[in-house]
Amino acid sequence: MPTGGEKATKVTKEPVEKLAKKKAAVKKAPSKPQKAPKPPKDESRTALVRRARRINRELAEVYPYAHPELDFENPFQLLVATVLSAQTTDLRVNQTTPALFAKYPTPEDLATANPEEVEEILRPTGFFRAKTKSVMGLSKALVADFGGEVPGRLEDLVKLPGVGRKTAFVVLGNAFGRPGLTVDTHFQRLVRRWQWTDATEPDKIEAAVAALFPKSDWTMLSHHVIFHGRRICHARKPACGACPIAPLCPAYGEGETDPEKAKKLLKYEKGGFPGQRLKPPQAYLDAGGKPAPPLAAG
Q: Catalytic site residue 159?
């Protein structure tokens, strides 16, 4: 005959086991496609703000190691790398810039370089002649107008050749710690899918999204959105069935909703593949991220 103590143990143990199973079920991907509720067409401004901020909080938990995916050691390197990232991947830029910065480490060096030699280094990034003109031009402007230093103000940065608001905010947010939204193609695609705005012009998208968040959130919000766009919410075939914010997304169902099929669409560390940086932050490596291979690898 069990004692009273044994009965108590048995009675309290069963609910704990059930609770553990419930938690495990929540973490486990659903076996069948889930239909996410769409926000009402007449979503109020307050509801939109709350939903947008919740999406950012959810993404912060999914990508606690989010970071700029361009390798850089100083503001000048980040500025040049960002200009070079147009019409190519950050991975390709990261595989190319080590040779560039080894030969031309300062604005003074790049400003007086032989254009043909710079073009040869930048050839893998595409549009290498135009990019050579831009990076040499901005280097000359830095030397002539800013004493060879990258300025920390938006109004100064956008005056440099090849530098627009997107590039300027990348530099301000990640090299100077000054908040800014990086409205690249991923950012534009996702905020429209989430119905944060229906604007199509980058400056209007920037203004609309900026109004939904406190300024202090802007830089990390950009990283969260861009990370999600590269890893899960792809342009051609978003992995809806593997998306952690599906219940908050009006566009759920545009991509693959089957959980198992969606998993196969995941990219970079989410899919077990290398990331885009040769020298990623330690937090990214600690989370299981893999550094990209050098240009000559493979």
A: no
